[in-house]
Automatic annotation (TrEMBL):
It comes from Phenylobacterium kunshanense. The chain crosses the membrane at residues 99-117. It comes from the Bacteria. Keywords: Membrane, Transmembrane, Transmembrane helix. This is DUF883 domain-containing protein. Residues 94-119 form the DUF883 domain. Residues 1-35 are annotated as: Disordered. Pfam families: DUF883_C.
Length: 120
């Protein structure tokens, strides 16, 4: 938005009240210079706003990534504990009943073999 207050003020002659110049008193060069100054200010303000927004977005993304990393560490630790526990229980059961474990493994192998063979 252009506002008249954004145009550079013209110096009033000594003893004259400070009043804005009439539009007819402005030369094309004055108008062009004022428009260029205003445009430069608007561009600078826009660049600063974009840079600030980029910094805020970057900070938000960094914070989100840190939260995801922290939560994934927790999930990985829990999953690792559960896998270790399942492995321990499976090892105990296999050692307690080796023939039953061998029979179960053989049965699973036969079922997978039959399923794969039926697809051909």
């Amino acid at each position: 938005m252009l506002a008249w207050s954004s145009f550079p003020p013209r110096e009033a002659p000594v003893g004259d009240a400070t009043m804005p110049p009439k539009a007819s008193e402005l030369t094309p060069e004055d108008t062009t210079a004022a428009a260029n100054d205003t445009t430069a200010k608007i561009v600078a303000d826009a660049q600063m706003a974009i840079a600030d927004a980029a910094k805020r977005i970057e900070a938000a993304v960094q914070q989100g990534l840190e939260q995801v990393r922290a939560q994934s560490r927790v999930y990985a630790d829990v999953a690792s504990e559960q896998i270790d526990e399942a492995s321990r229980v499976a090892s105990e059961q296999i050692r307690a009943r080796p023939l039953a474990a061998t029979g179960a493994a053989l049965g699973v192998g036969v079922l997978i073999g039959l399923l794969l063979a039926s697809r051909r």
